[in-house]
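Deliverable D2.4 — example input (structure tokens):
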């Protein structure tokens, strides 16, 4: 569920270039700028991960104070799944709000890059758009929604629209086979360092993200 954040790391996994590919100066420059921006984002995010965790701990403490065990006795059904997705959205919103300055700088850096292959440019634009959507994601009124759900005997919930919106945001990498032809020998070291950071970031996000989600669901007494 919380792998959404880790998708940012995948943009750096580049395969071998097709032999027939010819890179124009703009292709080379855009790819270099893309790698530089991605490395900068990953490096800063990994080294300041504790800030994201601190924000999430504060969020969990807030819900623990306002509505502990609000979903106690709730069934594991479609409505409950919507609320667990809403809880995941709360965590994503918290993380992206903490790193908003970094992500905005990244979006600004990649948002106007162009390649001779329009498929790469379109993919780049979709990535930037998805990140802007994540930045705009708000922490939902989980307590109110769970209490309202409980009041209906756990039969209906107002969280579905938010859950559907969260689920619809897809952060996808530029396809490896498209970007690979434009990675120059001079950028191989940069790419290697970035890939190392990407792996570390993915590990952090997977390990801590799942634990944070489990902890929040336990605080709210919601099923996964």
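Example output (designed residues):
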């Amino acid at each position: 569920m919380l792998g959404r954040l880790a998708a940012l790391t995948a943009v750096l996994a580049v395969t071998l270039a097709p032999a027939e590919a010819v890179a124009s100066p703009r292709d080379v420059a855009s790819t270099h700028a893309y790698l530089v921006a991605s490395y900068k984002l990953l490096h800063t995010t990994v080294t300041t991960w504790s800030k994201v965790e601190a924000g999430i701990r504060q969020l969990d403490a807030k819900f623990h104070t306002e509505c502990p065990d609000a979903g106690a006795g709730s069934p594991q059904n479609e409505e409950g799944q919507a609320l667990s997705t809403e809880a995941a959205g709360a965590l994503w919103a918290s993380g992206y709000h903490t790193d908003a300055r970094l992500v905005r700088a990244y979006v600004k850096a990649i948002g106007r890059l162009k390649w001779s292959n329009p498929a790469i440019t379109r993919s780049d634009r979709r990535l930037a758009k998805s990140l802007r959507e994540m930045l705009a994601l708000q922490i939902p009124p989980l307590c109110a929604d769970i209490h309202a759900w409980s009041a209906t005997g756990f039969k209906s919930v107002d969280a579905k629209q938010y859950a559907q919106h969260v689920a619809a945001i897809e952060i996808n990498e530029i396809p490896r086979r498209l970007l690979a032809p434009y990675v120059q020998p001079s950028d191989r070291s940069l790419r290697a360092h970035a890939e190392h950071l990407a792996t570390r970031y993915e590990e952090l996000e997977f390990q801590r993200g799942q634990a944070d989600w489990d902890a929040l669901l336990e605080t709210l007494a919601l099923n996964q």
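Residues 1-13+79-224 form one domain.
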